Amino acid sequence: AGLNIFNSLFMVGSAVLGIVCLSVIKMTIPQLFALLAVLNFLVAAYIFLQIPIFVVRFVMWMLTHTIYRVKHKNLHNLPE
């Protein structure tokens, strides 16, 4: 239940940030997306610095989902 509260707070906060950036600061939509990209990069860098094993897991996930191809056979045998 606590996580739902945090999710709701961050959704409201992001909506308020979008409204402030677009109306008060008079940013354009591409500038808003650029700001969000920079903020996303900063949060990712912070997580990578705080939890170094996450970098290894992320790289392994990227490798297994982009380079290695998993072929699925007989999917029709699975119950729905």
Give a short summary of the structure:
By secondary structure, this protein is mainly alpha-helical.
| Total tally of structural domains | 1
- Kindly report how far apart the N and C termini lie: 30 Å
Q: How many helix segments? A: 3
Biggest beta sheet summary:
none
Which term fits the overall shape?
extended
Number of strands: 0
β-strand percent reads: under 5%
Helix content: over 70%
H-E string? HHH
Which consecutive residue ranges, at least 5 long each, have pLDDT under 50?
none
Organism: Vibrio parahaemolyticus
Protein name: MFS transporter
Keywords: Membrane, Transmembrane, Transmembrane helix
Transmembrane segments: 6-25, 32-55
What distinguishing features does this structure have?
80 residues, mainly alpha, 3 helices, 0% strand, membrane, MFS transporter, transmembrane helix, transmembrane
Tell me what you see in this structure.
The chain is an all-alpha fold and 80 residues long. Helices cover 75% and strands 0% of the residues. It has three helices and no strands. It is extended. The chain starts with a helix and ends in a 14-residue tail after the last helix.
